[in-house]
Specification:
177 residues; elongated; eight-stranded antiparallel β-barrel; Lipocalin
């Protein structure tokens, strides 16, 4: 183990930021954020205690429905003009063969602590003799905890939009030479 810090950058071409949320209490609406960037700083080979910084371009939200996406970007929800980024800063902690990613997620003007289950899915050499590592990250947040409270009640007594947002990220990192 060396005392040198190693930086790993997220490869957006081989990574994905996905979410899903209940619609009408019946089925999930799936979406992605198409633009994001981040890095991981390690002090050892197994990513334990690695510092993670991740930024998502809020305006890149994509649910495959332009009207819904525009509503999500509006001041009713993400207010992307005023708050263009969702930001996460945290640390990876190894627990047996798995990791937990704990840190602060900021959406809009609200910062909250979250913990996400994280799995190292593989590591090795890339096509350009670079070193790569992959992670799968899962968790959930309550959108109301971040001030994303817009909703409409239906005649049946349910709500158009659920409160729980399920998160799923596939992340491929490239070691900075």
């Amino acid at each position: 183990m060396s005392n040198n810090k190693t930086t790993w950058n997220i490869d957006p071409a081989h990574s994905a930021v996905n979410f899903k949320i209940k619609h009408l209490g019946i089925a999930n609406v799936n979406g992605t954020f198409d633009k994001f960037a981040g890095n991981v700083e390690t002090e050892n080979d197994d990513f334990n205690n690695a510092a993670v910084h991740f930024e998502i371009d809020a305006d890149s939200i994509n649910t495959r429905n332009a009207a819904r996406d525009n509503h999500l970007k509006s001041p009713f929800l993400f207010n992307t003009e005023k708050y263009p980024k969702l930001v996460f800063d945290g640390r990876l902690q190894k627990e047996g063969d798995a990791y937990q990613l704990a840190g602060e997620l900021t959406i809009g003007s609200t910062m909250r602590s979250i913990v996400l289950a994280t799995e190292l899915t593989g590591s090795g050499q890339g096509m350009h003799n670079d070193t790569r590592a992959g992670f799968e990250v899962e968790g959930k947040i309550n959108r109301k905890d971040y001030g994303l409270t817009w909703n409409i009640a239906t005649e049946a007594g349910s709500f158009v939009v659920g409160e729980e947002v399920k998160l799923h990220f596939d992340v491929e990192l490239i070691k900075v030479a």
